[in-house]
Amino acid sequence: MPSSFATDSQRGFTLIEMLVAMGLFAVVSVGFYTVMFSVSSGSDRTTSVSGVSQEARLGFNRLVRDTREGQALRSAQSSSYSVDIDFNGNGSIQPTPADPSGDYERVRFQFNPSSNRRGTVTLNGEVLMRGVDCLRDGSGNCRQPVFTYSSGRLEYDSNKNGSVSAGEIDQAPGVGNNNGALDGDELGFISEVTIAMQVTEDEATSEFFTQVQLRNQR
Ligand SMILES: [Ca+2]
Ligand SMILES: [Ca+2]
Ligand SMILES: [Ca+2]
């Protein structure tokens, strides 16, 4: 009885089988390459979107951080405020640095609205955030100013709603001068700045909202 030296499972690949295998490999490779390509172009797009968002986040973080470090509010309006921050910890405020590389210890943040709802927030005149607008309601009106101020001094909560607005400080007998603005000694009663804005980048709009306690009031 003739014996076989190679069983079906042991024999090598035939030329036809090799060609079929290479063809399959080529098809799979092209598919794989296509998937890789679309994933990487997808992530490129994501990177660029989040890169822009990161710029806005960094700007917002700077706004919040400096405000938290603020030792005294120097001026406060609905679209701007300035705070003194002793960045170098020497116990005094130097509004403009003697050394050009030093920090400005008086920092002014300003919201500059734009009719296309893509305004800016500037820090001492330099653009910190772009595409900025107030938060809008369904009718397109600002829900609140970009910057509002409140006090922790509940004895001045004249309407007893649990919070003390800038208006209540302005109108408080013996504290405010009742001129409809937050000014003079009234600024020393403010403990919190509320920042409410939206940022539009490409066609995407993100809301930014936070309440920041000033350092000297914590
Ligand atoms: Ca200083
Ligand atoms: Ca109140
Ligand atoms: Ca006032």
Question: Which cofactors or ions or other ligands sit in this model?
Answer: calcium ion
Strand content is: 25-35%
The chain-level structural class is alpha+beta
Instruction: Give the beta-strand count.
Output: 9
Tell me, rounded to a whole number, the average pLDDT. 85
Tally the helices: 2
Q: Which regions have little confidence, pLDDT < 50, spanning 5+ residues?
A: 33-51
Biggest beta sheet summary: 9 strands, antiparallel
Order of helices and strands: HEEEEEEEHEE
What's the shape?
elongated
C-alpha Rg (nearest Å)? 31 Å
- Helix residue percentage: 25-40%
For the termini, the CA-CA separation is 100 Å
Description:
28% of the residues lie in helices and 26% in strands. It contains two helices and nine strands. The protein has helices at 15-68, 166-171; strands at residues 72-76, 80-84, 106-112, 119-123, 126-133, 147-151, 164-165, 192-201, 204-213. Strands 1, 2, 3, 4, 5, 6, 7, 8 and 9 form a nine-stranded antiparallel beta sheet that branches. The N and C termini lie far apart (100 Å). Residues 33-51 have low confidence and may be disordered. One calcium ion binds at residues 170, 176-177, 179, 181-183, 186.
